[in-house]
Write a structure and sequence with these properties.
The radius of gyration is 24 Å and the shape is globular. Helix 2 runs antiparallel to helix 14 and helix 13 packs across helix 14. The chain folds into 2 domains: 61 residues, no CATH class; 212 residues, MetI-like (MetI-like fold). It is mainly alpha-helical. The protein is built from 14 helices and no strands.
């Protein structure tokens, strides 16, 4: 018969738990330091911005930098509303299309077994090794051949076939959508697309919410180089670069504009944060 000591559960001590949560809190606070510094600088008057050595926190907060933004933006050749429309349209439309395409491709690769399926997924994984800088020249050549330079398609098309979205979606579908559930849908007379739309898509909600966060974050801050020349097609980060070009005297206003630009991505993160860890935990699960 086992003794009481043999049934003892092996858990961390109170001291271990304290240090565990202490370091997690410490690293968490360290990760938000750039955001705190941005907010503090946006509230600094000019004399605190020019002071040396520079201070991290603000001693006499003011909203002068925010109040100066309308005057600075009034000098733009293109109305601010145009930049806002471009950012919202490109970010929202591309995010929705990206989620739909990535989820459909992942569903096919996961549940519809066909010749070459494994090879295609291996190719998707290899494509994850290439970053945007290595693809810049080939993409520019393709855009030039398609004659879509200086159009909205330059923003939208490169993000639609994102391999990261397909990879995360497939791994999540493999672990969360059982074949028996799909078979039940076929018995009820549902077609493949209907099964995807009414059965699989609700189940993989954490995965596509995670993709929504990543896609919206990247698209909201996008600044194409060498492919957008028309001022009417540029997005809000261009406004930030215009304000920053005024030098250190405008750094407070530039930080104020940055804080305003942070609001939509942070809002999306607050909505989707509960789904990120679940999706990332499933990303390493193999068949």
């Amino acid at each position: 018969m086992k003794t009481r000591a043999q049934y003892k559960r092996y858990t961390r001590s109170k001291a271990g738990n304290f240090f565990y949560f202490f370091f997690l809190t410490l690293f968490g606070l360290f990760s938000v330091l750039p955001i705190i510094y941005t907010i503090c600088t946006s509230l600094k008057p000019l004399e605190e911005i020019m002071i040396f050595p520079p201070r991290f926190f603000v001693t006499r907060p003011t909203f002068e930098n925010y109040a100066a933004l309308p005057k600075l933006l009034a000098t733009l050749r293109v109305p601010l509303s145009r930049y806002v429309f471009n950012s919202i349209f490109v970010s929202v439309a591309t995010t929705i299309l990206h989620i739909l395409i990535a989820s459909m491709a992942a569903f096919v690769l996961s549940k519809l077994k066909f010749k070459g399926c494994t090879a295609i997924f291996v190719l998707v994984q290899f494509a994850l090794l290439y970053n945007a800088y290595t693809l810049a020249i080939p993409q520019y050549v393709i855009f030039s051949k398609l004659q879509i330079i200086d159009t909205y398609l330059v923003y939208i098309l490169p993000y639609l076939p994102s391999t990261l979205g397909v990879f995360l979606m497939k791994q999540f579908i493999d672990s969360s959508v059982p074949d028996a559930l799909l078979e039940a849908g076929r018995i009820d007379g549902a077609g493949f697309f209907r099964i995807y739309r009414q059965v699989a898509l609700p189940i993989i909600r954490p995965a596509w919410l995670t993709l929504a966060l990543f896609a919206f974050r990247d698209l909201w801050s996008m600044q194409p180089q060498g492919t957008i020349f028309s001022e009417e097609l540029k997005m809000l980060p261009t406004v930030l670069s215009t304000i920053s070009a005024g030098g250190i005297a405008r750094s407070g206003s530039a930080m104020a504009a940055t804080v305003i630009l942070l609001i939509p991505p942070v809002t999306v993160y607050m909505v989707t944060q509960g789904s990120v860890m679940e999706t990332m935990g499933s990303a390493g699960i193999k068949e």
